Amino acid sequence: MAESQLSEIVSQFLKDNHSLLTEEQAQEIFNYSQIVEENQLKFDFNYNDNEFPKLIIKLIIQFKEYENIISLLLQYTIIVMDFITMEEKINTFLKDENFFLELLNTCNYLLENYESLKFLVFIFINNLFNIKGNSPDNYKNNESLQREYITMEITNKISEIIKNQMLPNLDDKEYQNLLISSILFIFQSLQKRNKDFILFSDFDTCRNFIDLFLYYFNHLENSDPKSCLFFIDEVLSLQDDNFVIFLTNDLKIIIDINLREITNWAEVIHGEDDLKSNKVLMMYDIRLSYIKTLLLITKNNIYLENKNNLTHSYYKQFEIEEEMKKILNEKEIGTEPNLFFTLKEEALYALDYLLKL
User: Fold this and answer.
1) Percentage, residues of the chain above pLDDT 90
2) Could you report the per-residue pLDDT of 51-90, keeping only the tens digit for each?
3) Computed over its alpha carbons, how large is the radius of gyration of the chain?
4) Which spans in the chain are helix H?
5) What is the pLDDT of residue 1?
6) Count of CB atoms within 10 A of residue 198's CB?
7) DSSP state for residue 135 in the 8-state scheme
8) Which of 40, 179, 309, 356 is 20 to 30 A distant from 32 in Cα terms?
């Protein structure tokens, strides 16, 4: 596609001198994002190595003291980020480390100085770090790809934002779910996740987040739970006798949620016609992730230290075994994807392990 196919407003905007950007110009950009067709929006975004969105970000950094202009430019950016691929996001925002650090510094400045911009900035940060995929393989590739660009300098800067801007606002209902989601995506994006992560810096902060996280995890409904399950898996791998994040009751809540969702996602899948579509493959992968997390919990010391002396079993052990048997007994109709059989293999492995406890 040639320059002539650029939207007129974008073409003119790229030619203009922006040393004195006006609110009217910023309003035009926002209005354009509201009315232009998706394909045109994406083309304009990708034209000439993402020249237009990179310019918008430079202007956000340059005009950070102009609240109304920033609001309009952020809204354009948030809208367009819903339509771009992981590669396009990385090329525009993350590929140049210094540029990305400057952007994060600007986000921190906006959060410190403009109460009215908080929600927009939090959404923008969420979009910067969120991980999406249209199939299980695509999701895993995107996860790995984003992680490559999250350097130690970026980790330190975003940790500062979590500490100073996100955690202090965590109890505000207006931002709560958005902030939990953002922190989970950030945690998932780090190259190295360890006990030094800012979230675990003190007991009260950590405990408050875990309580809110469990509520968030319990009310996902049919939303993608992968960042939640990733967080649970990683925290379980970090836990030891001297570093405990999930307590006994926390694990019981997670077990109850996982058992419920393994069944719920089965019902959603059974309502689909094309069992090999990317949409359904993602559902199978989510169900598989719930099973893997459930198995990890049953291998954790905190779980194993709480055996019921009357029944000689562990919390919901019988229910987990029955759920695994149900999966093994699910009938084949001949159109299932390979993930259907991977699911059965994982259920068999889990059942065999539980029966030997």
Assistant:
1) 90
2) 999 999 999 999 999 999 999 999 999 999 999 999 999 9
3) 23
4) 8-15, 23-35, 38-62, 67-81, 86-89, 97-113, 118-129, 136-148, 152-161, 176-189, 203-218, 226-238, 248-270, 278-298, 301-304, 317-328, 338-355
5) 47
6) 21
7) S
8) 179
Range with the lowest mean pLDDT among 34-48, 84-98, 215-229, 241-255? 215-229
**Can you tell me which residue has the tokens 């059974």?**
270
Reported as a single tens digit per residue, the pLDDT across 169-208 is 999 999 999 999 999 999 999 998 999 999 998 999 999 9
User: Is residue 294 a contact partner of residue 258, using CB atoms and an 8 Å limit?
Assistant: yes
Residue 114's Cβ-count burial label (10 Å; 0-12, 13-18, 19+) is middle
Which three-class secondary structure state does DSSP give residue 308? strand
Instruction: Give the separation between CA 186 and CA 184, rounded to whole angstroms.
Output: 5
**Cα 23 to chain centroid, rounded:** 33
Six-digit token string for 99: 């540029």
Residue type present at position 295: L
Three-state DSSP class for 6? coil
Position of tokens 């940790």? 159
CB 96 within 8 A of CB 153: no
Please report the DSSP string for 216-268 in residue order. Answer: HHHT-TTS--HHHHHHHHHHHHH-BTTB--S-HHHHHHHHHHHHHHHHHHHHH
Amino acid at 155: T
User: Which single residue is written with the structure tokens 């926390």?
Assistant: 250
11: which 2 tokens?
Answer: 């073409």
The whole-model pTM stands at 0.95
List 243's β-bridge partners, or say none: 240
- Looking from the CA of 118 toward its CB, the CA atoms found within 13 Å total 18
